[in-house]
Amino acid sequence: MSTDNPQSKMIxxxxxxxxxxxxxxxxxxxxxxxxxxxxxAATIDALKIVQKSRRWVSDAAIAAIGRILGIAAAEVDGVAxxxxxxxxxxxxxxxxxxxxxxxxHLLGYEQVYARMQELLGIKPGQTTADDRFTLLPVVCLGACxxxxxxxxxEDTHYKVTPEGVEAILEQYL
Amino acid sequence: xxxxxxxxxxxxxxxxxxxxxxxxSLGLDVPYFCWHPALGSVGACRQCAVKQYSDxxxxxxxxxxxxxTPAADKTYISIEDAEAKAFRQSVIEWLMTNHxxxxxxxxxxxxxxxxxxxxxxxxxxxxxxxxxxTHNNQYLGPFIRHEMNRCIACYRCVRYxxxxxxxxxxxxxxxxxxxxxxxxxxxxLESEFSGNLSEVCPTGVFTDRTHGEHYTRKWDMQFAPxxxxxxxxxxxxSPGERxxxxxxxxxxxxxxxxxxxxxxxxxxxxxxxxRSDRPRAPxxxxxxxxxxxxxxxxxxxxxxxxxxxxxxxxLGSARASLESxxxxxxxxxxxxxxxxxxxxxxxxHRQAIxxxxxxxxxxxxxADMEACDAVFVLGExxxxxxxxxxxxxxxxxKNEALKQAAARKVPAxxxxxxxxxxxxxxxxxxxxxxxxxxxDDVAASVYCATPEAQARxxxxxxxxxxxxxxxxxxxxAEESAWAARIAADLMAAARPLVISGVSLACAALVDASxxxxxxxxxxxxxxxxxxxxxxxxxxxxxxxxAAAVEALEQLCLAGEIxxxxxxxxxxxxxxxxxxxxxxxxxxxxxxxxxxQMTATAERADVLLSAASFAEADGTVVSMEGRAQRYFQVYDxxxxxPQDCLRESWRWLHAIDQVSQGRQVQWTHLxxxxxxxxxxxxxxxxIVEAAPDARYRIAGLKVAREPRRYSGRTAMRANIxxxxxxxxxxxxxxxxxxMEGYVGPQESSALIPFAxxxxxxxxxxxNKFKDENGSLRQGDPGVRLFSAGRRADYxxxxxxxxxxxxxxxxxxxxxxxDELSLRSxxxxxxxxxxxxxxxxxxxxxxxxxxxxxxxxxxxxxxxRLSTSLAKDCIGLPAGRVKVxxxxxxxxGKGR
Amino acid sequence: xxxxxxxxxxxxxxxxxxxWRYNAHGGAVLDLATYExxxxxxxxxxxxxxxPQDLQATVKNANxxxxxxxxxxxxxxxxxxxxxxxxxxxxxxxxxxxMEPGTFKDRMLMEELPFQLVEAMVVTAxxxxxxxxxxxxxxxxxxxAERLNAAIAQxxxxxxxxxxxxxxxxxxxxxxxxxxxxxxxxxETALINCLxxxxxxPRTKPPFPQQAGAWGRPTIVNNVETLVNVPGIILHxxxxxxxxxxxxxxxxxxxxxxxxxRAQRTGLWELPIGTTARELLETHAGxxxxxxxxxxxxxxxxxxxxxxPEHLDLAMDYDTIAxxxxxxxxxxxxxVDDQQDMLKVLSNLxxxxxxxxxxxxxxxxxxxxxxxxxxxxxxxxxxxxxDIEWLRGMTRNLGPGKTFCAHAPGAMxxxxxxxxxxxxxxxxxxxxx
Lengths: 173, 894, 433
Ligand SMILES: Cc1cc2nc3c(=O)[nH]c(=O)nc-3n(C[C@H](O)[C@H](O)[C@H](O)COP(=O)(O)O)c2cc1C
Ligand code: SF4
Ligand code: FES
Fold this sequence. Notes:
The complex is a heterotrimer of chains A (173), B (894) and C (433).
Chain A: H1 23-33, H2 43-54, H3 59-69, H4 73-82, E1 94-99, H5 102-106, H6 109-120, E2 133-138, E3 150-152, E4 155-157, H7 165-170
Parallel strand pairs in A: 1-2
Antiparallel strand pairs in A: 1-3, 3-4
Chain B: E1 2-6, E2 9-13, H1 19-25, E3 49-53, E4 62-65, E5 75-78, H2 82-95, H3 113-121, E6 144-146, H4 156-164, E7 171-175, E8 178-182, H5 197-200, E9 206-208, H6 209-213, E10 222-223, E11 226-227, E12 236-242, E13 245-251, H7 264-268, E14 283-286, E15 289-292, H8 295-306, E16 312-315, H9 322-332, E17 337-338, H10 343-355, H11 366-370, E18 374-378, H12 382-385, H13 387-396, H14 399-407, H15 415-422, E19 429-433, E20 445-448, H16 451-465, H17 477-492, E21 496-501, H18 507-522, E22 528-532, H19 538-543, H20 549-557, E23 563-567, H21 577-585, E24 589-594, H22 599-602, E25 606-609, E26 618-621, E27 626-630, H23 636-639, H24 648-659, H25 669-679, E28 702-703, E29 734-735, E30 782-783, E31 805-810, H26 818-821, H27 824-830, E32 835-838, E33 848-853, E34 856-865, E35 872-876, E36 887-888
Chain C: H1 20-25, H2 32-37, H3 42-48, H4 52-62, H5 74-79, E1 91-96, H6 105-112, H7 114-128, E2 132-137, H8 142-157, E3 173-178, H9 188-195, E4 219-223, H10 224-228, H11 230-236, H12 238-243, E5 254-261, E6 267-272, H13 277-284, E7 294-298, H14 318-323, E8 332-337, H15 342-356, H16 362-379, H17 387-397, H18 407-421, H19 423-428
Parallel strand pairs in C: 1-2, 1-4, 2-3, 5-8
Antiparallel strand pairs in C: 5-6, 7-8
Helix pairs in contact in C: 3-7, 3-11, 4-7, 6-7, 6-8, 15-16, 15-18, 16-17, 17-18
């Protein structure tokens, strides 16, 4: 299924692959289920838990999440593909989220973005051949006073300049 | 009631509706997409905008979505307001930005709601100058074709498929202008009601694949009001024909029965009509060679065989019309008139129908079932045996949601809040069956056990309702609690409903249903009761009192029969092969009337080419005792002059007359129907099932073909360049032509297809309905069953000790039914016949199992079921002929 | 690196109910003891001695208006929730989905003062009778999630949360729910769908969440900043809160204002509500960066109308900004300098809006991408005659009431104001035939 990330144009199928939750994943999902009146509410938690340990969410994982929550795979996937930050295609070891909203626009994120693409040799939505980086746009990261802003994995980088991009990327192997 | 003011005029409406529905009921045109009369309102498409004013003095007003606005008293609106019109035009323009311009090759074209609404809204100029987004399509199985680029994102498909039909494998994916409706991954749609997507979708995303294989525009097909032949529910259908082939089946609205929806067997199972191996002319089997006979020669030959009337017998059929069965009975005499049921089965049928005659019991239509607030189904897997009933029960469980929503002043049409408020709360539906069913997901309890144990639970429910009813001993604590809960739910309900039937061939189950009804009646309740019967005319045939097949077998074996006339029936589906062979060996002449080349037909000395439902008129009686008439769709000899198809009643009557050297007397259907009514009091009302052949609207008969029917002069040019006169229909008030009346005024029983000016899609039914959901002139059909019997308690059936495995017939929506299985797409969905064993039986899934039962050796692949009751072995109903309740010991797995 | 907060301000408990603890402590307050030492949980203690209805009345009298953008009176909202023994399970949801471009106030409140939000939620839950609460946090706010979860754990250990709070009959469970990214999740009914594990399409209103919200039960949704005001109001009273605007506005309280864009010192300041945009920009943010001048500004997020330099002297409150033809929104202004191409700015906004449409209703789903494409065509000098009129028409057709929720109408605000203030720039985009 397509999501709006250009990344999704790439078709990867993994049908038939067996999916087994790790104990940790299962425990985390079951714990999240307790937070809500209805297990379905843990869908996003479950997707994020799986994504955290496996980088992305495969078709088999979607089906497995459906089973644990007692809802249809089509419903899980409907949720997964609705949201920006659930990856239904493989991503690189590091995901670079570049804020492309107005605050960063005013401070020139486009040059940062362009420099990034030039250094990585990929377009937004793509993953480098060495599987190191995936580059994606993201909605305003809530730090417009320190724009332009990037989120790489769990680190936020503020006031990024085109010249500074290279040094930032070097931190991620 | 409420008074609403629309464009300066005042109207009285039922204030419970939303404005959109109210306007449509008043005959006013307001375009819409996301609203559907059966699905309610969600306000997504924004197509139904009208201007609303706060009072009569308000000049400015504001746009509102009519589907989301109550038709409350003193509402002032304008449909014609310029801003509202311009906005509605814009909505179409937006929807069209990504819609492909493929109307000429689109299977929806010509009956497309999007086309209709585009014309209605007046959008005609494309201004969008950018690229369209495109999607990939999915393979969704043999029934439904997928073309996502045509999607206008009205969300109706998922709302129908999931919220209405309970399907789980269709979803919506993505967001913003990239929303995708399909399956999570390609594959066959699982719902037994997937075909309705083709009518629910307002454009060509989900279309009828079977139709697509031999596509014809709606306006180029000839239609007739017809009745689905797939089961005993009696759904109304509208088959469409072109070039002497049925091209598709569409739903025909009947507010009391199927209203907007059919099951997939009914919609897609028509392929048997188009089979190339159908007997199309009479034939004679001599020395192993079958050679054609002329009509006269066939009549003379068979007439000669039956002349003496001494040693003849007739086998009637629950898949043939009352008229045909009656004609057979007239020919062979009531004592020599049989049907394809064993004595036990016959008794069970009679018992089931008799239970519907209890004093005080309500006989529910499907619409009534939808309104029931507690349901107990005993021993029927409804999705397999009466699919449309299962869909109705899915709606019945939502009565709890309606109740909760009403308490918060949320109207019934406001679909999304209705779901939110109720969450998982459902009105109680209790099921018993030998294994899990496709309704379990909405059931409050599911009891899987042998048929006898289910019946005992039913008796326990009766006892829990009324202590005067005999108590059931030896129930487990769990079973007792179950019975108490079911009893409590039925007692607490305003409209309790009990359903059982004959599919498990267990008389105790029908007794149990009657016992519960009896108990509820004695407690002052007004319970409803339905009994599921297998065939389209099971009820009708039973009213003609045909005897059991064993009696016929005995007569044959005793050498009492020279000529056996078999009407639209296959002996091999009724008796084991060896017994049929023994029987046939003893008779001189086998005469078979059928439209299918069955195993019996292949052995017929004379095979008379009967018309199928598509080439015939007739009356059938549904399981609720509703007599309904179906009408001939087309005349096959118009395209194939060499065809000699005749309704079975015509054949049989002609044989009867010819054998007596008399002229044919019944020249049209009304005469036969009148004759039946005159000779069987119970059937006397059938003449009212539909208007007779003299019916006219403004002096016109009703046209079977839409006004735009094209190519008539060319379609026969390969036979002759001279266009013959259109065939004349003496039997009904319909014409085989576009000449005649077309529109919403015709009698409800005579609407061949849904069309109203500006409304070419099935949404046109809105124009035929009244506010209460009935067709304007009343829903067609007459109810025949009348109450006559007082209910009395029966003794509790004893526990049946297990001795080996007990055979239970397992019905399947695709596979058990004789005719639909002869359609390639249904055969595709049905797959191979299997024997079902409990998962712990020690046999492997798919392994071949040989069993010997009823003197037959069966070899079938094993299907394992985790839910199948212990002590049971499931055999594929309709595919093997094994009596229920036989005990078998398993042979070795191979 | 944290935001510049309250730089150059005299911050006091009596006048800065939102942020005084941050200044008093000289940074983030991340442990319970510190929070307690700074009047922490005093409001809760006081609340538990009062009747819930009294708390509701106090908040109503305080004239606290929702800080999520719409300015709906909080006390009125609360009063619509059914109270009484038979009102069943109820929910309190904190809207911490902050995704409105240009907005970074809730992030600061949660990262620096997590306990304050926790206390605010317990007090509010008590006032409305909610048993369970969720902080609906956007997934990218990782630090906030960590700090809130830590604060919740500490508060629970000290029985400020959980069963029978502080020995009272009142129990309340609080969870952080992290989203997966979609601007529309900020819309309160879409948020509820998202919380329930569904696609975040907004819901039909009525019924409003107060009647049938999460899982069909009565639910209150409030913004982080709105809630964080509550403890102060309870401790110091409605009159005190109303006095905080110091006569600058008929609105009450203080407000977290902010400035982003090419100004000298971008950041956040807690100021009396009704402070002028000029004071914000010139006094607190130190004016525009060297060599730049102000071309236009957005008063409170991407879905508010542009205003011009001539509007800088308006009081930043709900009614004054509305009168000028815009909305205060979140109150964090974005300044567009004179070197920016207004069409380019607009193109960025429309890209955002089209991408973040949920896809439920037609005008927004199919109309916004078209708007975006026309704006881009104009930007590329490939506009056609009629494009400007067409855009004007779209601002009406996608306006309030025409779409299912307020997303598309919000998207039309910058467009309609740009058309109003910068018609020339649009005309330049049209290729002469
Ligand atoms: C498209 C859209 C996005 C919104 N995003 C947010 C948001 O991120 N945070 C927020 O608090 N309110 C947001 N709102 C407003 C909420 O719907 C709601 O009004 C608010 O949470 C109510 O809280 P308040 O009364 O405390 O302001 C948004 C509204 C819309 C229409
Ligand atoms: S305006 Fe419509 S499509 Fe847009 S976000 Fe709201 S509901 Fe979704
Ligand atoms: S029919 Fe009313 S909004 Fe779709």
